[in-house]
């Protein structure tokens, strides 16, 4: 690979690159389209999948087609008025409420943490390690509002934790960091459900000093060298919730992020402070995560986050 190709590849995130490849394959192979495409063929492709694929999925397919054409030096057919009008019509004829993850309420966070703490005192070393890892991941994911890929990309060298004080976490890149400038996130220590204490206990139990913070653990308690994959966070969270007696099918990794946003909103945080803390730059993105119904769970009034 030439230096030019290497830098061009680095400009696009891995997940986006995989999604775009799959979208192009779907257009060419599954549907039988030809590249470079015409605006008419793109419009017919949308019509063929209207009501079958979600509008957001169709928009992703259009983005992939647009990227392919511009990168190859061809005119972008997705910008044609007919394509935009067809997509608008599909949105009108097939309206669909966007599915959102159920926010993890504080009472359920407390319940799952208590269950994991009980597991961590058992006699199975592998189960003890997994319980400490899962507790740290869930608490850090909740109170910091991290996405699953951000949790899985945390490196010990980029984390500074001071028990009783707080924790700082540096991410060289993230979804909201479009320019890959890197950003440091801070979270204070709490009196209960403390992510700083959970992180310190996990590192101590796992005897980790460098590399990925969160890793796979086999049946014998051996730790993987690589970090967890982002797709493993959903089953990890659901299994921990199920073991705690909480029906978990409606929860995803975004439940941690939405859970914190919901708690902060109901606790009186203004939207500007919430956006700054979590890292949202777009108000619409922030509002999608905030659950506005009255809060029925417990509060942490005695331990403010900031």
TrEMBL record:
Organism from which the protein derives: Pseudomonas nabeulensis
UniProt xrefs under InterPro entries: DNA_brk_join_enz, Integrase-like_cat_sf, Integrase_catalytic, Integrase_recombinase_N, Phage_Integrase-like_Recomb
Domain spans labelled Tyr recombinase: 99-302
PANTHER family assigned: P CELL-TYPE AGGLUTINATION PROTEIN MAP4-LIKE-RELATED, PHAGE_INTEGRASE DOMAIN-CONTAINING PROTEIN
A GO BP annotation: DNA recombination
Highest taxon above the source species: Bacteria
One GO MF term: DNA binding
One Pfam family here: Phage_integrase
Protein name per the record: Tn3 family resolvase
UniProtKB keywords: DNA recombination, DNA-binding
Keyword DNA-binding carried by entry: yes
Presence of the UniProt keyword DNA-binding in the record: yes
